[in-house]
Structures are given as structure tokens and as C-alpha cells.
Amino acid sequence: MRGLWLRLIAAFAAVVVLSMLLTATLIGVATVGGFRVYVAEGGRRWAEGLAPFFADYYARHDGWAGVEDLLDLPMMMPGMGMMHGGMGMSGRSMWQMMGHRLLLIDETGTVRLDSEGTALGAVVPEDVRRRGVPIRVEGRTVGWLLVGEQTVAGGPSEQFLWGAGWAIGWSTLFGIALALGAGSLAFARLVRPLRALEQAARRLAAGDLGARVPGSAGGELGPIAEAFNRMAEALARAEQQRRQMLADIAHELRTPLGILQGHLEGLMDGVLPLDLEQIAQIHDEVRHLARLVEDLRLLTLAEAGQLRLEREPVDLNRLVEEAVDGIALQAAEKGIRVAVRLSEALPQVRADPVRIRQVLMNLLTNAVRYTPPGGEVTVAVQDVGDGVQVSVRDTGVGIAPEDLPHIFDRFYRAEKARSRADGGSGLGLAIAKHLVEAHGGRIGVESRPGQGAHFFFIIPYDPQRTPAVS
């Protein structure tokens, strides 16, 4: 998890640094550009204020002769003309103090006055001089006046821009440090539950099915931690069911195998006679083993969703009659009456007739087995709107409330109603449940002790309902 944390921090740092540097660059460019525009506009306003003064000078002197001497007078101040003559500073000193430069260009483009004194006599290109404020005398342009920034280092404009750049730079560094600190804490908090999840996963992979992610360690990944805990609980239940199933299978196989071993050893030792009766008993146990193995195979396929169904239009009335005929002899031997209530004009369903008949035989066999002599088993078929319901009621001993939730579990038997002495492997109801669900239907049971049991299942109709069968 440390590698993940480092990668997250590195990616976050790259994004933060690039974003802050880009922001600082854009702010710096905008600040410098805005400041330059502000200074240029200010200089133009000053030049417009001084233009009348220089126009008056030109008119009085009939030219620009001696105009450079104005900078040596103590009365030259930007924007205020000749109003401050007693301040004790020359015009040149005032312009330097203000950080600005004054240029006077005559009509030929020659510099006649420069507050810095470095450009006197130089010829200024036309595009530059036209940026200044024209000086007009009697409707004629006799020169241009430009007020701009000082070119000497350390002027007020340069100091302002340096200060702004310093502030932008330090604020950028502080912002990067603050963002990285906050990101480190956030990612550490994010990785902490992942680390707990990783440790729990490693324990689970090592076989510790009790590994869980503590609820307090979930954090922002709480739903993932809960899902992991549910998965771990499901694996623990599956492992418990696997162990229980192996124990149940071993128990179920041990009894018939023990009987077979006893008979065979008795025959080999001459204790038992080698006659048809002994062979018939051995044959019965072999058949019991074969049925158990087949039931296990079928149940395994059904639980894995690999059981193949041969669906076709099926008349459940006819299937019920066939199943009742198949159980009639066994019921008659116990003195149990079997009643059938069919539904007229019952629509067909698309189902596997072999598997549905197996469900019916399992329920009927179960009902006859646990119904005492003189009792009754009733089979009913009816249309319930979205499918066909088949019900099997008996007048047997019933099922205790605590046994009902487990009645369809494999190898489950209630203490009295489902003892092995009464026969059965404990797989019939589990197989019936999976076969019904494989058809998209549902199965259920209702019962009270001493009042018999009511098993029922519903097989849904095919989307295209076939014509009714009379």
C-alpha cells in the first residue's frame, strides 16, 4: 500500500505544481500587462495636462529654442505646470522622483526635451511619436509630448513589479506546500482502509475464514469493507456447508456400506446362507447406494446451474395423474387414500416433464411416508394467474416451526418426521426445490405439528401461452 500512496502523492504533486505554476504565470502576465496599460494611460493624462503649457511656450518663443532649460527650473511638476515654484526641486529631479520620463518631440521628429537627457537630438520614428499627445498651435501640430516610465533601474515601476512578482512567487510556493500537505493527509486516510482490507484479504487467502475488516477502518471505503465482510461470511458459510455435506454424505454411505460389508462377511464366513433372500437384501442396499449417488449427482448439477432441461408443452393435469398412479400401490399398502383435484381447461406450461414428474414423486413419496395408516393425501392443480400451482397435502404428523426454514436443506431431517428409520436420504426435497427453481418457479411449505403438511410449487407459464387443454 505504501507504493500506492507514493504514486498517488506523486500524481497529485505533479498536478498541483503544474496548476500553481500555470496560475502564477498567468497572474504575472496579467499583472505586468495591466500595470503597463495603467502607467501608459497615466502618462498620457499627464501629457495632456502639460500640452497647453508647451503650446503656450512655443507660441511665445515662436519655436522650441531653449525649451530644454525648463527642466532646470524649480517649477516643473507633472500635471501641475508652473504652480509650485517654491518646492526647491528642479523639474528634472521631480520627474526622476516620480519614476517617469518626459519627452518633447518637434514636428521633424527630433527630441528637443528629455527628462533623462539621454535622447536629446535623436530622431524618433513616426509610429512612436504618434503615441504621444500632439501639441497644437493655431491649428497646426508643432510637436508631440510623451510621458512614460523611467528607463533607469530601480524605478518605482520596477520596484512595484518586483514586489508583485515576489508576492506571486511566495504565494505559489505556499499554495503548493499547503496542497501537498493536505493531499498527503487525505491520501493517508484513503490508503488506511485499503491497508486494512489488504491485510484481511491476505488472511482470508491463507485460510482464515474469520478475517474481517473492522467497521472503524472502513472510512470512505465503508461500502467496500462491508461487501468484503459479507463475502467472507458467505465463504465461511459455504465452507461450513461443504464440511457438513461431506459429513452427511459419509454418514449416509456408511450405513448401507456397513450392511453390505456385514452380509458379505457373513456369507464368506458361512454364518449366513447363500440364498436368494440374502442376495435380495444385498441388492436392496446396492440400489439404495445407487439412488443416493444419483441424487447427489443431480443435486450437484442443479446447484451449479448445469442441469439441462428438455422443455416442451406440458399438461400438468396428466403429469399429476401419472405420478398418483405411480404412488397408488405404496399408498394402498399403508391404507392411505389419495385424492386428486384437477383443474379443467388448464393452460399448458413449457417444462421438462421428466423433471416435473420427479418433483411430484418426491413430494408424494414424502407425503405417503409420513402419513399414518388411514390418513389421506390430497393433490390439487389450479391456475394462479401467472402459472400453475400443484399442491400436495397430507394428514401426517406435521413439521415443527423450528424445522420449517430448513426443510429444503440437503440431508436435513426433523427429529421425528424425518428419521432414517422411515427411509429416504434427505435429498428429495432439496432436489425438488432446485428443479422447480430451474424452471423459474418457486416451492414452499406450510405446516403445524399434528395437522399435516402442505407442500406446493408453481411453474410459470410460457410467455406465449398455449391453448387450453380440456
- Number of H- or I-type helical stretches: 9
Mean pLDDT: 80
The best one-word shape is rod-shaped
Q: Into which percent range does the helicity of residues fall?
A: 40-55%
- The order of strands across the largest sheet is 6-8-9-11-10
Q: What does the secondary structure layout of this molecule look like, with pairings?
A:
Elements: H1 2-61, H2 91-98, E1 100-106, E2 111-114, H3 126-129, E3 133-137, E4 140-149, H4 156-205, H5 222-269, H6 276-303, E5 312-314, H7 316-333, E6 337-341, E7 349-351, H8 353-369, E8 376-383, E9 387-394, H9 428-438, E10 442-447, E11 453-460
Parallel strand pairs: 6-8
Antiparallel strand pairs: 1-2, 1-4, 3-4, 5-7, 8-9, 9-11, 10-11
Helix pairs in contact: 1-4, 4-5, 5-6, 6-9, 7-8, 8-9
Concise description?
This protein has 470 residues and is of the alpha+beta class.
Structure description:
The chain has 470 residues and is an alpha+beta fold. Strands 6-8-9-11-10 form a 5-stranded mixed sheet, covered by helices on one side. A 4-stranded antiparallel sheet has the order 2-1-4-3. It is rod-shaped, with a radius of gyration of 52 Å. The C terminus is likely disordered.
